[in-house]
């Protein structure tokens, strides 16, 4: 039997398998890309980019280019082998088969790809089905071939085209790929009929995608251009996932150099490549990124389970041997290992073997991946801890400190955390609860101060709106342990009122209100309270944000009183525009609201609480790494990063002096 490397090199039409057409994709796009919102839209470019990354993993591409055009068109190019264009056994070009039939990619065959992002090869064809227009250019054997599609349907047979004509059709940014020995260029525009919100791609999100892939595939160059702004980004990381761990910890104090464990594992039937990197820091938060064949498995899976098991066993073995557990009654738990841990877990598997929980590929199901990661990490981490006693001691001390804090805080936490405790606790006295018992129909307003709380209680619809006033600024929870949090009266009241608990027994299904609305004054103090609450929810009740339950109310800044009408303005620009257009006679009484307490209950209802007239901003996490960086910078102990942030963004600040 030929070696795998030889088979990889021989990428031809014979490796293309045909299973079905594209009709199911347009009928049920969610089955293939998860959704038709912004997340689903960006899944399109992920599929195309991952096809190019596959070429690099196989050792055939060194560069990947991406261009976001001003007219919503996207171009992705790579200097890999190029999609085969010769006739398939069905009599049609292999390129046309790959672009118009589901499960037709070469990645469906192990001999064509070793490790792949686009499972089953639905990537390119699904993108084609969901695009109003697509063009694919291939260079093989010094010849250029082209085919265009409209809503997934080819407009002509695959044909050859001179290089100068191709050059005229492509942006100059990707022209270097035309001089490569072989290449693939894909250009598409997402169909507005499918992506009704918007078919424009976010430069920031695409930049994050390419940077992430650059960390995973070391020595692969990525080049990105935003035509609208002229902004360029280039990524190349020789250190691979070690560089990613350093990047994730850049705003924290590492306790030791990053530790790398990697190698190949086999059970005789399947080979799995394993790469992990970890580093503890001085924070109390865990940050683990897991990947399977360059896909970010945000829900983890078997590979992450194997990593946790290996880390726990290695550290327990070391702590026992080194005497750290002497006199300790209970040792440490898996939760103790999480405090301050930053890690990356990356497995590479044959594409025909990999199993995800769904087509959106957020959780890896292969049990073999668990065995592979555990075996590789356990053996190498044991060696590291043995050979680096100083670093091992730092890690063990960090974990044992977390364990002691957990045990010491148990009494303080029990009132809120233990299972069933909330049923026995009375709701906070400050809480003005609503009559509605269905969480999906209920809202909780977290209000700044008793004055605004009084107006909100009077102005609300008590049928479905509950009010919880806060007595001023709350605890900064960025670096606070759980026992300190539940001892803080205002936060304890909030936790009890919400009903879902906190910590290891937190259950989002028990949340008593499906809209948690932060309502604070439109001034500096109000913004600070909002930031403190956002920090609390992000660090300790992340599920509230992930499930879309957290909102920020936007009260008006101005009341504009004319002779016959009253209007409210939410920005200075809106105020000026209203005065010009709706109050032309000039007799205007302008009131600048400094706080919610200045509004009477009727005004507060009309402007900020009435579902028909209010404005709410939903809190979402689009980029977890960026969010973690921002919270650490703004709310953490380190002053220099915060000073740099203020200096950089000072011109954008809105000062209420």
TrEMBL record:
<keyword id="KW-0413">Isomerase</keyword>
<feature type="domain" description="Toprim">
    <location>
        <begin position="442"/>
        <end position="556"/>
    </location>
</feature>
<dbReference type="InterPro" id="IPR013759">
    <property type="entry name" value="Topo_IIA_B_C"/>
</dbReference>
<dbReference type="Pfam" id="PF01751">
    <property type="entry name" value="Toprim"/>
</dbReference>
<dbReference type="GO" id="GO:0046872">
    <property type="term" value="F:metal ion binding"/>
</dbReference>
<dbReference type="InterPro" id="IPR002288">
    <property type="entry name" value="DNA_gyrase_B_C"/>
</dbReference>
<dbReference type="InterPro" id="IPR034160">
    <property type="entry name" value="TOPRIM_GyrB"/>
</dbReference>
<dbReference type="InterPro" id="IPR006171">
    <property type="entry name" value="TOPRIM_dom"/>
</dbReference>
<comment type="similarity">
    <text>Belongs to the type II topoisomerase GyrB family.</text>
</comment>
<keyword id="KW-0799">Topoisomerase</keyword>
<dbReference type="InterPro" id="IPR001241">
    <property type="entry name" value="Topo_IIA"/>
</dbReference>
<dbReference type="GO" id="GO:0003918">
    <property type="term" value="F:DNA topoisomerase type II (double strand cut, ATP-hydrolyzing) activity"/>
</dbReference>
<dbReference type="Pfam" id="PF00986">
    <property type="entry name" value="DNA_gyraseB_C"/>
</dbReference>
<keyword id="KW-0479">Metal-binding</keyword>
<dbReference type="Pfam" id="PF02518">
    <property type="entry name" value="HATPase_c"/>
</dbReference>
<dbReference type="InterPro" id="IPR013760">
    <property type="entry name" value="Topo_IIA-like_dom_sf"/>
</dbReference>
<dbReference type="GO" id="GO:0006265">
    <property type="term" value="P:DNA topological change"/>
</dbReference>
<protein>
    <recommendedName>
        <fullName>DNA topoisomerase (ATP-hydrolyzing)</fullName>
        <ecNumber>5.6.2.2</ecNumber>
    </recommendedName>
</protein>
<dbReference type="InterPro" id="IPR018522">
    <property type="entry name" value="TopoIIA_CS"/>
</dbReference>
<dbReference type="InterPro" id="IPR020568">
    <property type="entry name" value="Ribosomal_Su5_D2-typ_SF"/>
</dbReference>
<dbReference type="InterPro" id="IPR036890">
    <property type="entry name" value="HATPase_C_sf"/>
</dbReference>
<dbReference type="InterPro" id="IPR013506">
    <property type="entry name" value="Topo_IIA_bsu_dom2"/>
</dbReference>
<dbReference type="InterPro" id="IPR003594">
    <property type="entry name" value="HATPase_dom"/>
</dbReference>
<dbReference type="GO" id="GO:0005524">
    <property type="term" value="F:ATP binding"/>
</dbReference>
<keyword id="KW-0460">Magnesium</keyword>
<keyword id="KW-0067">ATP-binding</keyword>
<dbReference type="InterPro" id="IPR014721">
    <property type="entry name" value="Ribsml_uS5_D2-typ_fold_subgr"/>
</dbReference>
<dbReference type="GO" id="GO:0003677">
    <property type="term" value="F:DNA binding"/>
</dbReference>
<keyword id="KW-0547">Nucleotide-binding</keyword>
<dbReference type="Pfam" id="PF00204">
    <property type="entry name" value="DNA_gyraseB"/>
</dbReference>
<keyword id="KW-0238">DNA-binding</keyword>
<dbReference type="InterPro" id="IPR000565">
    <property type="entry name" value="Topo_IIA_B"/>
</dbReference>
